[in-house]
Structures are given as structure tokens and as C-alpha cells.
Design a protein that fits this description.
Blueprint lengths: L8 E5 L5 H8 L3 E5 L2 E3 L2 E3 L3 E5 L3 E5 L6 E5 L5 E4 L9 E3 L4 E4 L1 E4 L11 E4 L3 E13 L4 E5 L2 E13 L4 E5 L2 E6 L2 E5 L2 E7 L2 E6 L2 E3 L4 E7 L2 E10 L3 E5 L5 E10 L3 E6 L4 E12 L1 E6 L3 E6 L2 E5 L4 E4 L2 E6 L2 E6 L4 E4 L5 E2 L7 E2 L7 E4 L8 E2 L5 E2 L6
Parallel strand pairs: 1-2, 2-5, 3-8, 4-9, 5-10, 8-11, 9-12, 10-13, 11-13, 12-14, 13-15, 14-16, 15-17, 15-18, 16-19, 17-20, 18-21, 19-22, 20-23, 21-23, 22-24, 23-25, 24-26, 25-27, 26-28, 27-29, 27-30, 28-31, 29-32, 30-33, 31-34, 32-35, 33-36, 34-37
Antiparallel strand pairs: 6-7, 38-39
């Protein structure tokens, strides 16, 4: 199995013998094949793989060591939730578990209190691959606390009452890749507190109300190859002490591209594109450090960068294009804000000179330069 667990038996779940019953009876080291549709909340035990009929996983021969594809027999595996049931559709009850090639269909956003897939707490070595979740009452995937080595790959999540994926607190080494979240009422990805080694790569969030990625307190998060379209925030840090790296991220049709509301956060961004949004970057709080390099801001409805509070800002080799309705840089009560040395090589193709505004107390130090020779510093910023 992908988890490293050897298969000793194969068992089948269907409308007659459901997943929970089959899983409990089969025990450790079992491959369980879900044949067709099963209704009601289900549970899969530790050291098992749950595979939908007609789907394919890779298996390794115990004697030969050869890896070959295995396509499960039977009809497509599908879990559904009754209209009157406020429970999670599928619960992963133990470690070393793999769920693959199934679809989970709930009763509709806000219609109950159940999540699509619940990983619970204090588990390790969990793989969820090639799974679709739709019409879920609350979160598509819920991950509580104390988990480690979690892999979510090729997920399609749509019509969700809360978040696409909710990562609570104290988890380590979690990877979410090649995913799609659409129409989540809250956030595409919600990262709570003290989660270390969260990697989000190769995914998209569209039509989700409050944001693409939401990050609270004390997390270490790496985001790459992701797009966010039509949310209030592309990436929102609403807390303290986070370390976030973002690369090759695009944010379209949003209120804020990158929004930092908190203290002591470090954001390192490269090749980030913010298009048709009100603010490229919004920072409000003290002791934050932001670096933007090789990024593009185009058709900004208000300000490219808005700063309120103490900040170290590195802004180099970026492009500002299209139109900017507000100002390029807006410094408001900035205290001891510093433009870090090397904030050079920026390009302006808007057809208008870079604009700057500062209000309130104190002033910033340092300068941002453009390839046309324009310099933005305290002296040129009224």
C-alpha cells in the first residue's frame, strides 16, 4: 500500500455490507473495495486502504518489489449522507490509512453539521488521493490536532458549507497538492494554529467567499503553483508569528491579494501575480517582515501596497501594470517601517508616474527604485 502497509486480504463493501462493518471485520492490513453506493456515516480503521470500484492505485509486490497499477473491480465507489443525518460522511479512525478513488456527496452546504472526510486527531501516515467531495454541510476535509505526515492529493471539493480543507492545530508535515476547491462558503484552505510544515502546491480556489488560504497563529506554510479567483482574500494572515513562503501564486478578482492583519509575521513572496483586485498587498500590524520579488500587480482598484504599522519591506524586480486607481505605496501611521536595501529593479508600465502617500505619525526609511530612474522615499512621498 502507499502507506507501506502490506495487504494480507481483500474485502468488499457495498449497499448490503457497508464500509464500517467491512472495515471492522477485515482488520489490519486489508484492502477494502467500495463497490457502488453506500449511504450513511462510515468509518475506516487503521492499516487499511479503502479503494473505490473502477479506480486505480499503485501496489508493490511483497516478493518482487515491482510496482504495478491495480484497478479495483466493481462500480464506482460513492458515499452519500441521508437528509436527516448530521454526521461526518467518512471518518478515518487510525493511522497508516489510505482512501482513494471514491466520491463523497453530502446533503448540501449549511444543511447539517457534518464534514465530508474527518481525519480526527493524533494520527500519522494518512493518504487521501483521487477523492471528490460535493454538497458538504461543513468542511470538505477536517483535520483536528496532533497529526503528522498527512498527504492530500488530487482532491476535488465543491459546494461546501464552511472550508474546503480545515487544518486545526499542532499538525506537522502536511501536504496538499493538485487540488481544486470551488464554492466554499468560508475559505479554500484554513490553517489554524501551530501547524508546522504545511505545503500547499498545485491547486486552485474559486468562488469561495472569504479567501483562498487563511492562516492564523504560529504556522509555517509553503504555498506554490496555486491560483485564487473571486475571493475576498487571496492569502490572509490574520494572526501572529507565522512564516509563509509563496511562489508562483496568482490572485484574480479579489479584494486583497496578500492581506496581513497581525504581528510578527514573515512573508516571502516571489512570482506572485495580483490582477483585477482592490489591493495588491495590505499590511496592518507591527513587527512584520515582507519580501516581494519578481511579482506582478495589474489593474489595482485602490493601492498596490498599503501599510499601517511597523514593517520591514523588501520590494524588488516587480512589475506594476495596467491601471492603479489609488497610489502605488500608501504608508499610514507606519512607525519604524524600513524599506530594506536592494528594493530595486521595479518596472512601471502603467503610463503614470509611481505615486506614494504617507499619513499619520512617523515616517519610513529607505527607498524603492524603478528601472526608469524613479525613486520612492520619504522625501518624494507627500
Amino acid at each position: 500500500a502507499l502507506t507501506g502497509t502490506d495487504f494480507e486480504r481483500v474485502a468488499y463493501a457495498d449497499a448490503t455490507t457497508d464500509v464500517s462493518t467491512t472495515s471492522t471485520t477485515a482488520g489490519d492490513n486489508s484492502l477494502i473495495i467500495l463497490n457502488g453506493t453506500v449511504t450513511g456515516s462510515q468509518e475506516v480503521q487503521a492499516k487499511q486502504t479503502l479503494q473505490g470500484g473502477g479506480s486505480t492505485i499503485q501496489i508493490r509486490g511483497r516478493r518482487t518489489g515491482l510496482v504495478v497499477p491495480f484497478t479495483a473491480p466493481g462500480a464506482a465507489g460513492r458515499l452519500t449522507t441521508p437528509e436527516d443525518e448530521d454526521t461526518d460522511s467518512l471518518v478515518i479512525a487510525g493511522s497508516n490509512t489510505h482512501v482513494s478513488g471514491i466520491s463523497i456527496v453530502g446533503i448540501g452546504p449549511g444543511s447539517g453539521t457534518g464534514d465530508g472526510l474527518d481525519l480526527g486527531s493524533d494520527k500519522s501516515n494518512i493518504y487521501v488521493t483521487d477523492v471528490s467531495l460535493a454538497n458538504i454541510s461543513e468542511d470538505g476535509v477536517n483535520i483536528n490536532g496532533g497529526n503528522s505526515n498527512i498527504w492530500l492529493i488530487d482532491l476535488d471539493l465543491s459546494s461546501l458549507g464552511d472550508d474546503g480543507v480545515d487544518i486545526d492545530e499542532g499538525n506537522t508535515n502536511l501536504r496538499l497538492s493538485n487540488f481544486k476547491v470551488s464554492q466554499a462558503n468560508d475559505y479554500g484552505i484554513d490553517v489554524g494554529e501551530s501547524n508546522i510544515g504545511v505545503v500547499i502546491v498545485g491547486g486552485s480556489v474559486s468562488g469561495s467567499g472569504r479567501g483562498g488560504v487563511y492562516i492564523e497563529n504560529g504556522n509555517i506554510v509553503d504555498i506554490s503553483g496555486m491560483s485564487v479567483d473571486g475571493a475576498t482574500n487571496g492569502i490572509l494572515l490574520q494572526g501572529d508569528g507565522n512564516t509563509v513562503t509563496a511562489s508562483n501564486v496568482s490572485v484574480l478578482n479579489s479584494r486583497f491579494g496578500v492581506n496581513v492583519e497581525g504581528n510578527g509575521n514573515t512573508v516571502t513572496a516571489s512570482n506572485v501575480s495580483v490582477l483585477n483586485s482592490d489591493f495588491g498587498v495590505n499590511v496592518q500590524g507591527d513587527g512584520n517582515g515582507l519580501s516581494f520579488t519578481s511579482s506582478t500587480f495589474s489593474n489595482i482598484g485602490e493601492d498596490v501596497v498599503f501599510v499601517k504599522g511597523d514593517l520591514d519591506l523588501h520590494f524588488a524586480n516587480n512589475t506594476i501594470s495596467g491601471t492603479v486607481a489609488g497610489v502605488f505605496f500608501n504608508f499610514d501611521d507606519v512607525g519604524t517601517t524600513t524599506i530594506v536595501a536592494g528594493s530595486t529593479g521595479n518596472t512601471n508600465t502603467t503610463g503614470a508616474a509611481p505615486t506614494c502617500e504617507q499619513t499619520g505619525t512617523a515616517s519610513f526609511t529607505g527607498e524603492i527604485s524603478f528601472t526608469d530612474g524613479t525613486i520612492v522615499n520619504a522625501a518624494t512621498c507627500p
